[in-house]
Amino acid sequence: MASHDHETTTELRCSLTGRPLTPDEAYWAPPLITARDLITTFFKTLFTNPAALGAIFLSELPNVPYAPEARPLLARRRSIEQAKLLGLLLLIAVVVVALVFWLVR
Question: Which residues does 32 contact at the CB level (< 8 Å), separation at least 6?
C-alpha cells in the first residue's frame, strides 16, 4: 500500500470527483497531470528558471486521495493525457523531419 501524508483533521476529498472520503476508503495515487499543465510548466520554467527543469520534472509528486469508484475514470483520463502528449510529440517530429527534408532539397 502506498504511503501518504495527510492531516487527520482535514476532510479528504477525491481529487477527481470532489466527493468527501474517509481515510479508510481513500485510494492514494499521484495527481493527474494534463498534457496542457505539463507543457505550460515546461515553457514557464524554461524561460524563467531553466536550471530547475530537472528538479521539477524528475521529482516525485505527493500522492493525493481518490474515491475507489474513480479509479477507472482516473485510468481513462491518464491514458487520454498520455495519448495527447504522444500525438503532440509525433506532430513535432513530423514537422522537424519535413523541415529538414525541405532545407536539404
Answer: 15, 16, 74, 77, 78, 81
Beta-strand ranges (E) seen in 1-81 are 12-13, 20-21, 27-29, 64-66
What amino acid is encoded at 89 in this protein? L
Residue 86 half-sphere exposure toward CB, CA atoms < 13 A: 6
pTM over 0.90: no
Q: Residue written as cell 493527474?
A: 32
For residues 51 and 44, the answer to whether their CB atoms sit within 8 Å is no
Q: What is the pLDDT of residues 33-62, one digit of tens each?
A: 999 999 999 999 999 999 999 998 899 999
* CB distance 15 to 64 below 8 Å: yes
* Nine-digit cell string for 82: 498520455
Looking at every residue in the chain, the average pLDDT score rounds to 90
Phi first, then psi: what are they for 9, rounded to 5°?
-85, -15
